[in-house]
Amino acid sequence: MTELARTELGRIDVSASALQLVVARAAEQVEGVRVARGRHTPRVEVAGGTARVEVVLAVGRGTIVPVAARAVQECVSREVGSMLEARVDAVDVSVERID
Fold first, then answer.
1. Is 38 left (phi over 0), alpha (psi -120 to 50) or beta?
2. Could you tell me which residues come within 8 angstroms of residue 57 by beta carbon, excluding any fewer than 6 positions away?
3. 33-77 pLDDT per residue, tens
4. How far apart are the C-alpha atoms of 38 and 96, rounded to whole Å?
5. Separation of alpha carbons 38 and 86, rounded Å
6. What are the angstrom distances between the C-alpha of 17 and each of 1, 13, 68, 70, 89?
7. What pTM was estimated for this model as a whole?
8. Which domains does the chain have, with CATH numbers?
9. Checking DSSP bridges between strand 2-7 and strand 50-59, what pairing results, if any?
10. Which of 24, 3, 10, 8 has the alpha carbon at shortest distance from 86?
11. Which of 9, 26, 39, 42 has its CA at 20 to 30 Å from residue 70's CA atom?
């Protein structure tokens, strides 16, 4: 579990699998992109109100990789930042496969 906040009523935690799902759904909003499954799951580190994300992608043939990767960075940053109320310092994108 990742601790997001502490309030006067207690802690607010979120599971790694929930964070991975947020990242995957945001990344897959970009046309021609899907999150690589299996040994590469998205990673989200949250500390001190900031987040850092790592995501591995597969892109469709004909997809312009730098354009798609930047779009993924923007979508993931927006969604993670909004849902976690955290500043996203980085979204590191790796393309593992071109399908």
1. left
2. 27, 33, 34, 35, 36, 68, 69, 72, 93, 94, 95, 96, 97
3. 999 877 789 999 998 889 999 999 999 999 999 999 999 999 999
4. 12
5. 27
6. 9, 12, 24, 24, 21
7. 0.92
8. 15-98 (3.30.70.1350)
9. unpaired
10. 3
11. 39
CB-CB contact of 79 with 26 (8 Å):
yes
In degrees and rounded to multiples of 5, residue 24 shows phi and psi of: -60, -45
**Predicted confidence band of residue 13 (pLDDT cuts 50, 70, 90):** very high
Task: Provide the residue type at 93 as one letter.
Answer: V
pLDDT band at 10 (very low <50, low <70, confident <90, very high): very high
Q: Residues in the chain, how many?
A: 99
